[in-house]
């Protein structure tokens, strides 16, 4: 009898929770049919999609660095996270994290050796295995962060290579244009030198002709 009443009470409580959840869902759908992100303004068709957008997609929301517990505590806008990976603060945090992991691994080895006996061997083995798994997870996270940084640097290298190629092509074009302009200037100089020579000859002829005219006038 008591058991049946208890089960009935539990069912009633479950129904109340389900009803409350449905009421909240209906309220969100009716009062907020197209909720928008308060950071970037993107409109979503449901609160679940909005929450997912803010958790994974929104580029204007500030998030904490994965190495916040190792000295990199600055909140960074998600869209600027790749630039943050290249910052001096983040690189120092990576070094600090790696040094801490190596130090903890070194300190754990003597403790495992001194505390190992027949009675505590299974427990020590379990603790050591758990510790190794934790360390491996930390190392994997660091590798992922470093991989993101390497990927970013690789992208920057490719971009700079393309820009350098464009600059080289532009320089080659300028050199060809400059060479053509230099040849044109040389031709113009030769032409002007020829005109100057002809002008000098013409001036001499004019002077000679003038002398002859003056002489004829003097004779007459």
UniProtKB/TrEMBL annotation:
It comes from the Eukaryota. This is TRAF-type domain-containing protein. It comes from Rotaria sordida.
